[in-house]
């Protein structure tokens, strides 16, 4: 299947700065996760598929036979349906009553996180004469949304008895799964299974039980249950520097630009806003046309590196909104030379995890921060 032909990938603009999304790596990661856990996968594509492009990523996962997709907001789910995505889509965020009709109209699965919300969903479904497909959200320690596991029984009973809701799933979310040694995950799993056991005791059919995010997939087999919900690891990035690399994955995103300007900065002169970096000898400095206005973190000012002609060079001075400067020392660079910000060049590589550590943020923030000002280009994925 031509995986992205109807996916409306953004036209490749003239802009020399671009994100390249490797759909073959995405498919590899999905296969790798599947083989590791041995249960169906809900591919998480919220937040523009972690910066990789919501629709092309979702269509490719669908072409690869992903069992289910997950997003955060109903708007993201509607965008998927409008783009022709037909796979089951769960909206994981808390819902607002007035939106329920939209879920049902677009065939989106609803997270029901309280008895009140169950009643709202039932009312909307009855008014439309169309059943709603729901997943119950149990709070086992995250304290975000969901009915507390210790008081979930009446909630579960009402959902099982509901005439207008199809109980497809029951789930919870892990708070500490990035940390392989945290006892929290075991406690959350126990609480979740105890809530699920109530359904069994009622003699009702067990819906799909799902609990594991990427950290759960990597570290905690007892959380895999009937389906897993990986986000970041699907994109080939570890949730935390301390994560155990138990699943072989390849980075899906790379980010590159080109040298737009070259000059020599004389000893004693400073570079960029605030004059925070000073050349202590004459040195060659190039300018790269990407900045925090694209989501490249300003925290990488005088901290990050880039690759030019196979060599690693430091960013000097503050990252501006649209540009930053790089000290290439005695190296050479020409206008239009490729500058790799994320990815490999020669025998060097810069990972999202590296950038996150340097910027003092989590890898998620680097990925989702890269915004739509940067064109995305999709490689692979189409069978020849
Ligand atoms: C975002 C999210 C995930 C995926 O998390 P990763 O750490 O990226 O794997 C899974 N489940 C829920 C409920 C989420 O909100």
From TrEMBL:
A Pfam family reported for this protein in Swiss-Prot or TrEMBL: Ala_racemase_N
Gene3D superfamilies linked to this entry: Alanine racemase, Lyase, Ornithine Decarboxylase, Chain A, domain 1
Pathway: Amino-acid biosynthesis; D-alanine biosynthesis; D-alanine from L-alanine: step 1/1
Domain of life: Bacteria
Cofactor: pyridoxal 5'-phosphate
Entry's EC annotation: 5.1.1.1
SUPFAM superfamilies per the UniProt record, alphabetical: Alanine racemase C-terminal domain-like, PLP-binding barrel
Active site, UniProt feature: 46 (proton acceptor), 273 (proton acceptor)
Domain Alanine racemase C-terminal, chain residue ranges per copy: 252-379
Binding locations of substrate: 144, 321
Entry-linked InterPro entries: Ala_racemase, Ala_racemase/Decarboxylase_C, Ala_racemase_C, Ala_racemase_N, Ala_racemase_pyridoxalP-BS, PLP-binding_barrel
One MF annotation (Gene Ontology) recorded for this entry: alanine racemase activity
Keywords: Isomerase, Pyridoxal phosphate
Record-listed N6-(pyridoxal phosphate)lysine modification sites: 46
Reactions that this protein is recorded to catalyse: L-alanine = D-alanine
Function summary: Catalyzes the interconversion of L-alanine and D-alanine. May also act on other amino acids.
PANTHER family attached to this UniProt entry: ALANINE RACEMASE (PTHR30511), ALANINE RACEMASE, CATABOLIC-RELATED (PTHR30511:SF0)
Family designation: Belongs to the alanine racemase family.
Protein name: Alanine racemase
Organism: Lysobacter stagni
């Amino acid at each position: 299947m031509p995986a992205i032909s109807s996916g409306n990938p953004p036209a490749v603009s003239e802009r020399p700065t671009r994100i390249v999304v490797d759909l073959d790596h995405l498919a590899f990661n999905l296969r790798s996760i599947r083989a590791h856990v041995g249960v169906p996968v809900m591919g998480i594509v919220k937040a523009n598929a972690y910066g990789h492009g919501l629709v092309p990523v979702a269509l490719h996962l669908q072409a690869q036979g992903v069992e289910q997709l997950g997003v955060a907001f109903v708007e993201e789910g509607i965008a998927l349906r409008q783009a022709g995505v037909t796979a089951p889509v769960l909206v994981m965020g808390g819902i607002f009553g007035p939106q329920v009709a939209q879920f049902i109209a677009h065939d989106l699965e609803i997270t029901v996180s309280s008895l009140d919300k169950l009643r709202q969903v039932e009312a909307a479904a009855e008014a439309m004469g169309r059943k709603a497909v729901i997943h119950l959200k149990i709070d086992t320690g995250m304290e975000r949304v969901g009915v507390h596991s210790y008081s979930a029984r009446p909630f579960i009973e009402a959902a099982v008895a509901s005439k207008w809701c199809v109980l497809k799933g029951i789930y919870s979310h892990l708070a500490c799964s990035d940390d392989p040694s945290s006892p929290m995950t075991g406690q959350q799993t126990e609480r979740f299974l105890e809530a699920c056991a109530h359904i069994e005791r009622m003699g009702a059919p067990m819906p799909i039980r799902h609990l594991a995010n990427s950290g759960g997939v990597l570290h905690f087999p007892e959380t895999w249950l009937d389906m897993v919900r990986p986000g970041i690891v699907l994109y080939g990035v570890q949730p935390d520097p301390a994560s155990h690399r138990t699943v072989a994955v390849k980075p899906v995103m790379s980010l590159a630009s080109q040298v737009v300007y070259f000059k020599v900065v004389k000893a004693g002169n400073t570079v960029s806003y605030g004059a925070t970096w000073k050349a202590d000898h004459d040195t060659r400095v190039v300018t790269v046309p990407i900045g925090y206005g694209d989501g490249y973190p300003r925290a990488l000012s005088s901290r990050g590196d880039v690759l030019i002609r196979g060599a690693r060079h430091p960013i000097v001075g503050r990252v501006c909104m649209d540009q930053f400067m790089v000290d290439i020392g005695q190296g050479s660079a020409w206008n239009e030379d490729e500058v790799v910000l994320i990815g490999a060049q020669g025998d060097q590589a810069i990972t999202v995890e590296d950038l996150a550590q340097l910027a003092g943020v989590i890898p998620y923030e680097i990925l989702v921060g890269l915004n739509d000002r940067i064109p995305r280009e999709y490689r692979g994925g189409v069978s020849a």
